[in-house]
Amino acid sequence: MTPYMAEPEEFVTVYKGSIEFEEAANAMADECFLYSYQGIFYNMPAQHNLKHHFYCVTRGRYIRVFPACLWCDVKIELQTPGNHVATFFAVRLLVLGEQKSYVGVAQSVVGRD
């Protein structure tokens, strides 16, 4: 697994009308890069120089690492009725958040069977 801060090994274009398009469009979050791991999309902040303290969502509509400055608004949205039950917790480093995202994705893939 290559950390999101490294140069990507490849770029993939998801075309409108393709099987992945709707899922990719629904997974996209503002100010983030969209990644795919084991067929599940997740978001990482586009900025790499963010201050410490992040929140990692490993289950729910947006699997993502959020900077602390956005967390209050995100938490309210996650608690809105009708949203999937989200699992989230604090992490100090973006790379740890990404590793936790991998674990969350792997668990959701296993849970699909």
Q: Care to count the β-strands?
A: 5
Count of discrete alpha- or pi-helical segments spanning 4 or more residues:
3
Q: What's the rounded overall pLDDT mean?
A: 76
- Order of strands across the biggest sheet? 4-3-5
**SSE string, helices as H and strands as E:** HEEEEHEH
Please estimate the helix content: 25-40%
Strand percent estimate: 15-25%
Identify low-pLDDT runs: none
Radius of gyration from the alpha-carbon trace, in angstroms: 14 Å
Beginning-to-end CA distance, first to last residue? 24 Å
Principal-axis shape = globular
Largest sheet: 3 strands, antiparallel
Structural class: alpha+beta
What's this model, at a glance?
This protein is of the alpha+beta class and 113 residues long.
Please describe what this structure looks like.
The chain has 113 residues and is α+β, with helices and mostly antiparallel strands. The strands form 2 sheets. It has a 3-stranded antiparallel beta sheet with strand order 4-3-5, sandwiched between helices. Strands 1-2 form a two-stranded antiparallel sheet. The model has no long low-confidence stretch (mean pLDDT 76). It is globular. A hairpin with a 4-residue loop joins strand 3 (54-59) and strand 4. It starts with 20 loop residues before the first helix and ends with a helix. The chain contains 3 helices and 5 strands, in the order H-E-E-E-E-H-E-H.
